[in-house]
Amino acid sequence: MNARLSQHLTLLGLCSMIFYGVMLGTGKLSIEVMPHFVISAVIFLTSGRLMRKGARSQEELDKEEEKRKKQAEVDWEWFTAMFNWTMALVVMGTLTVFLMKPLGSSFVQALKSVTPHAHYVDTTVP
How many helices (H) and strands (E) does the chain have? Predict the structure, then answer.
């Protein structure tokens, strides 16, 4: 019964919000009284949710908690290995970019001088 009542309260809250919006749109109510009406509609909406939560049985709550625990378990070995390999590739890529940049030039100058299908030649070897 609480589940049906919560649905009715939620529906009542939605209907009251629509009604108050129509009343404001047609000019029957002034903007000064709207906060009072909106607060009452929000109370209807939240009371429906609270009653729905209260209507759940303990078994349903236990099942939901078990599902959350199963979903929250993380495979730390896989996560650590993936993180280590990712960071190793990032470090190697960064070092490669630094080594390929010619000495005495900035990254912006090196990018401006690169053209497609042309090689960048530097006279000094690091």
Answer: 5, 0
**Which amino acid is present at 2?**
N
Average pLDDT score over residue span 68-84: 82
Query: What pTM does this model have?
Result: 0.40
CB < 8 Å & 24+ apart, contacts of 105-112: none
DSSP 102: P
Token digits for 33? 């009284």
CA atoms within 13 A on the CB side of 75: 5
Distance CA(54)–CA(47), nearest Å, equals: 10
Query: Cβ of 60: how many Cβ atoms within 10 Å?
Result: 10
CA distances from 78 to 13, 53, 83, 87 (A): 48, 37, 8, 14
pLDDT for 39-50, tens place per residue?
A: 888 887 788 777
Angle at alpha carbon of residue 12, lines to 2 and 42, rounded to 5°: 95
> What are the b/e assignments for 21-39, b being 16+ CB within 10 Å?
eeebeeeeeeeeeeeebee
